[in-house]
Amino acid sequence: MKLKKLAQLVALMGVVGPVMAQEAVPPAMQRVEVTGSSIKRVAKEGALPVQVISFEQMEKQGITTAEQLVRTLSANGTGAENMTSGNNVFGADADRLAGGASFASLRGLGPGATLVLLNGRRVATHGASGRAVDLNSIPLGAISRVEILKDGASAIYGTDAIGGVINFILKTNYSGVEASVSTNDTQAGGGATRRASILAGTGSLEEDGYNLMASLTVDKAQRLNGSDRSFVNGYQPGRGLSPDTTGTPFANQMAGAGTALGTAFQLPGDPNQYLQANPLSFQGKCDSVAGMSQYQTALWKDVTSPLRTKYSCAYDYGADYVLQFPVERANFLSRGTFKLAPDHRMFVEALGSRTKATAILTPMQVQTSIANKAVYPVGGAYYQDLSAYIPSFDKTKPIAYKWRANDVGNRTQENTTDNARVLLGFEGNFGKWDYKTGVSYAQSTTKTKLTDGYSYTDKLYAALGTGIINPWVGAGQSQTEAARQLIESTKFRGAFQHGKTTLTQIDGAVSGELFQLPAGAVAMAAGFDLRREGYSFAQDVDANLILLAPGNAALKDVSRNVKAVYAELLVPIMKDLEMQLAVRRDDYSQVGATTNPKIALRYQPADFVLFRASASKGFLAPSFDQLYSGVLTQELPNGVKDQEGCIKYPGVKEYCSIDRLSYTTGGNLNLKPETSKQGSVGIVIEPVKGYSASFDYWAINTQDQLLKRTPQVVLANYQALNQYIFRKADGTIDYVQAGWFNAGGSRVRGLDVSLRGEGKVGDAKWTATLDGTYMDSFKFAEYKGQEYKELVGNFYTRDLYLRWKHNASFGVSRGDWSGLLVQSFASGYKDQVPNDGKGTPPPGFKADVSSYTTYNLSGTYTGFKNTTLTLGIQNLFDRDPPFTAHNVDEVVGAGWDPRVADPRGRAFTFQLKYKFL
Questions:
Q1: What is the pLDDT at residue 664?
Q2: Which of 263, 479, 626, 729 is least surrounded by CB atoms within 10 angstroms?
């Protein structure tokens, strides 16, 4: 007799998730469809690499959003796909159209390489970005379970499934009424979350021939500021970390032709030339203004002028970041299922959601010059005479300065995303043949408003040029009423941009048994998928008119047709050996056609052991934004180095250090689909009843990877990418061409480990689980011909490819009581040395970021009639995020990294669920 537990594991091809218990196996002989296959079969016969997570276990964890759930998966990447870093990041993963969105990224291959499904069908991608499904749109309150396929699935589902598939399965055939409320409050304050939901259903599909159900969930996350957490600190020079920006609230004066400082200045007896000055620096009082400090020249040496900032103040603007944005969500689902005949059903499903996420960014940095006419005028009330410190100071000339415009306010973007999907479907069976078909329409619309912190460029520069606004507001001081009114008159508030994606889909499939072989029946599935995808994006106002606006070039309505057919076979080669064959042909009207096969083997020579293997090809079609978005000219937030200029003209600033680099970014009509080859081998064992383990080694090779090239990458690889650097006649850089391109590719290797044990002590039951991913290698080539670079265990701006991540749990239940302890672990990595090591790290500097471990504890009581109470503590030991010396540019975080850690600290959760009927 086969071991029941092993049959369970095989049925879902892998042990249960890290902290989640598997749902019960369906009744005997009931055929089910599991993510990763279109063939319905008896559950114990399945063989698919699927991890199953139940809704009840999410509740016990205090998980209230799909983003939180995905971040618990060891197979998910450690990247900038979450709200905090995703809306602040300046580097390669910057997606200015993804305001308030969150995405999944299995294997760290990016959001576009992870397919997110709802009940096995596609939903519209994010309304503004258009590249992936926003996790905020998933109605988690109506979810029954989540299935995660950690294997390539282009042969089954088409594009997006290179990294894997996350399938959110909704509740169906529910009868009764239940309501729940939950709270999550941090001990240190800020960042609280609230959720309330109601689920109601009536009718029994078997007895009444119908079932009607509806669910409504609303939740709200409150703001958490960087100032609320002590570990958010970008000024720790003793640990190799110090701000590298001289845009300060108490402005630094800048050198420049026609200004008071001239092109540079010198001090008596000092041969060095300096480019910036601040009286607080001369006095040793930079820290008298909150967030400011003396610029640490030793850490941030400049190639051409090591002491240019010696008399400047710096500003820790990274500590101003909002760590958790205010978010409000509402998700509504209604479903009606009707029995047309004993074996035939029709269902209608309507889904709607609204997410309002307020992205709050740091105040803008303003640099004035003679050219923009924003210099401080001679004779102004706040004219700052530095003659006492700089003998060459010319007080007959205006002052150029760099100012962090705190008085203009935090740049605030209100992003509202509305999602809707309507689906009409039919399913049933004719004997041993099952069928399903459906027609659906889905859309996602995102609208962005700028509500504070943004000014019209010409109005702000003109206002600064009046001298009424004081860029040197000291501690305890404030702007005059006239200055505040003048600043207010420059601001832009209102609708800024909007985007929309649409998806119309008709699909159908049949599955059943073809014929018998000596080892069993050959089963097959065949189907089709017809889709029309659309996208549009428009600016409500010209972004070029607004200083540092997050705009993108408008994209007129574009659409494409996708036609796909697929087939799948399940062949029992012999009694204990089964083979799955699948192939899919996709034809994109504007990208081309591709065929992707897959083969998988399942071999069970004994009751206690199972071997499995798979090999497949995958592809990822470029998104509309990647293909068609227009060219937009932007500036980097800080200066970068022209390495070629530094080599050719050593010591000449204008040929090396660029204060404000212009670059272009946008779509690329020459993009090709990203392709992949991948495979895995694994083993599942249950040596003793109640104890099981699985080990799966996997590999993914990609080519023509779709990535956004940054100007920093172009400049760093100028020898290979010189065609993207455009220079003026004198040899200085005019601008750099960046944007979407096909990278050389990646080579990824890793091992998934899942362990499970369960037993009884007296009348108490216990369970223990562990789910981890060991990243053996992640090698990446930015462009074709470049040598692949190993990224695992090293700082990187896109993703942190950590060597090991796991989630482990231990649960106990007895009668009406149950408890759960969960451990989450992420290994450390090599930190980035400030300024690429050109500076001088302090004595004892450690270029390693430590590992990060947290514990969650919860208890549940069901002893009251129809009532479930759950109390929990998240981050039980109040572990702070590990320190990193990386500066905030390219990846948000001052002294910490939001891609790894949760900034909320210890939090207390409470949930009450009551069933009325």
A1: 85
A2: 729
